[in-house]
Specification:
- The chain has 134 residues and is of the alpha+beta class.
- It has three helices and six strands, in the order αβββαβαββ.
- It has one domain: Aminopeptidase, CATH 3.40.630.30.
- The longest helix has 17 residues.
- It is globular, with a radius of gyration of 15 Å.
- The relative contact order is 0.14.
């Protein structure tokens, strides 16, 4: 197992961006929002034929509560609905109350609780889901 470091993370993002640009990762989308620098990011993929998995959704603290997170989520929903997706899922740390309230406010419904492994540490999360229009 490789230890997580910023270099390991940067290499992963570089591989993902290169695959998207080369057209070898048609199921992946990475959206960024910039304003004098990176202020928001969303990464999604559709590993199953009809369910979109949003693996990352981050908005810089001083840019939260301005509609940017909602806009990124809506963009992902639209893009993948056009590709035939029927649902979207986002996992949120159970302890992250502000993020949980955000997802509930924009229509996410709690689907299940699970644990995921973060560098050998099991962390509880709640998976929120949205149906996508046909």
């Amino acid at each position: 197992m490789t230890d997580w470091t910023y270099d390991v993370s940067a290499a992963g993002w570089t591989r993902s961006l290169a695959a998207i640009e080369a057209g070898t990762a048609p199921d992946q989308t990475i959206l960024v929002a910039e304003q004098g620098g990176l202020i928001g990011l969303a990464a999604a993929r559709m590993p199953a034929q009809s369910i979109v998995d949003v693996g990352a959704l981050y908005i810089a603290f001083d840019h939260q509560k301005q509609g940017l997170g909602r806009a990124l989520v809506e963009t992902i929903k639209s893009r993948y609905a056009a590709r035939g997706a029927t649902a979207m899922h986002i996992g949120v740390l159970k302890a992250n109350e502000p993020a949980r309230r955000f997802h509930e406010r924009i229509g996410g419904k709690s689907l299940l609780e699970r644990e995921f492994d973060e560098a050998g540490v099991p962390l509880p999360e709640i998976v929120y889901g949205w149906p996508l229009p046909a």
